[in-house]
Specification:
It comes from Rhodovibrio sodomensis. This is Aminoglycoside phosphotransferase domain-containing protein. Pfam families: APH. Residues 35-256 form the Aminoglycoside phosphotransferase domain. This protein has helices at 7-15, 62-76, 116-127, 146-158, 168-186, 228-234, 238-241, 253-267, 269-275, 279-303, 323-336, 339-350, 355-359, and strands at 28-30, 38-43, 48-53, 85-89, 99-103, 141-142, 196-198, 207-209, 215-217, 224-226. It is of the alpha+beta class and 361 residues long. The protein folds into 2 domains: 7-103, Phosphorylase Kinase, domain 1 (2-Layer Sandwich), CATH 3.30.200.20; 116-359, Aminoglycoside 3'-phosphotransferase, Chain: A, domain 2, CATH 3.90.1200. The chain has a 5-stranded antiparallel sheet, with helices on both faces. Strands 6-10-7 form a 3-stranded mixed sheet. It is globular and about 60 Å long.
Length: 361
């Protein structure tokens, strides 16, 4: 994968945009690395952040990846819960993956469970945005059948199960949930859900809480048109709330129920009535998406030192990312693929009283 350019190269590229034509030589400052797909640089004291992709997590071309991310920021920021897009620096010889400049959000990581209402409010505001006609939704993905759309991603990731080094008990847990999801999808259940602009990658570490208590999603590259239940689930699954040390929490079913009810109150009775029957099912689908991603990552990470590294268009090697971050991801992935952890996560819908009882379904 192409290396992130040095500061001098980034500075010259950013100066090509009229907003930053007077950028000083020493204004760019690297920010802490927390994600696998980007490096970030603070643009002096101007209130902007330069977001430089290292790879596409959708395995898109550099140009398509940048176009997709720009559309995410442009559309979600109208909710007031995502940074404004300032500039798009297209891919070229200096910037192989291009870059985006977005508004810097000053805030702190969410504290769970206290900030769950703020996260629910942010998602409700995004889900309340007008949805364009189908022919105007590109370049964002359009999952008019939310279950089928998610299952396509799950199946692509689940293909790695054949070569993953998994405990047989863990493999059985995943296989059981996959069988349920395939049957659920075959019944066409996803076509009956309301379609909204959704964030998709809503783990709490992707948000900041500003001075007014507003939750703002700052790592935004996977938005699409699909089921609001996906966002609600991904923000609060055990694999999300224990992913980032800054937002680590183990939520009870009661706390989850309160969070979902808060969201349903904000979106109003019409949307609440339409989405409520799908919330637990979409939680299971989102669980599968997260867990099969872990399976895929574990396999591709093992391949990273071999000749086939990067063959998928992704590179999660320590050479392309801070080794400490890679070690953290490996630790989390290992934890989530343990049989006991998989059973603990599935208990939300397999044991009574579960989340369905909290929601009154």
């Amino acid at each position: 994968m192409p290396a992130v350019p040095d500061h001098a190269t980034l500075t010259r590229a950013l100066r090509d945009h009229p907003r930053f034509a007077d950028l000083g030589d020493d204004e760019l400052r690297p920010m802490a690395v927390k994600g696998l797909a980007h490096d970030h640089f603070r643009v002096g004291t101007r209130g902007w952040v330069l977001r430089v992709p290292k790879q596409s997590q959708f395995a898109l071309s550099a140009a398509d990846n940048l176009c997709y991310q720009a559309a995410c920021f442009e559309r979600v920021s109208t909710s007031g819960h995502a940074p404004e897009l300032a500039a798009v620096l297209p891919p070229d010889q200096r910037l192989p993956m291009g870059a985006l400049a977005v508004r810097e959000i000053v805030g702190r990581p969410p504290r769970l469970p206290d900030d769950l209402p703020a996260l629910a409010t942010a998602m409700a505001r995004v889900h309340g945005l007008p949805v364009p006609e189908a022919d105007a939704r590109a370049p964002l993905a359009d999952h008019t059948d939310a279950v089928a759309g998610a299952l396509a991603e799950i199946e692509a990731q689940a293909a790695y199960l054949e070569v993953a080094d998994l405990d047989p008990a863990a493999r059985a847990e995943i296989a059981d949930e996959l069988a349920w999801a395939r049957d659920f999808a075959a019944r066409g259940s996803g076509r009956h859900q309301p379609v909204r602009l959704v964030l998709t990658d809503t783990h709490p570490g992707n948000f900041l809480i500003d001075a007014d208590g507003r939750a703002v999603i700052v790592d935004l590259e996977k938005a699409l048109y699909g089921s609001p239940g996906t966002d609600l689930a991904h923000a609060t699954l055990y694999s999300s709330t224990t992913w980032d040390p800054d937002t680590h929490a183990d939520l009870s079913v009661g706390q989850l129920g309160a969070y979902y009810r808060h969201y349903l109150e904000i979106v109003g009775p019409e949307l609440a009535a339409r989405i409520r029957p799908w919330l637990v099912a979409m939680r299971r689908i989102t669980f599968l998406r997260a867990i099969t991603w872990c399976v895929m990552w574990s396999v591709e990470h093992r391949r990273a030192a071999r000749a086939d590294a990067g063959a998928s268009g992704r590179d999660w090697s320590a050479e392309n990312t801070d080794p400490a971050l890679i070690a953290h991801v490996a630790d989390r992935v290992g934890e989530y693929l343990r049989p006991a952890t998989l059973r603990r996560m599935r208990a939300e819908w397999r044991k009574a009283p579960g989340l369905d009882a909290e929601l009154g379904d």
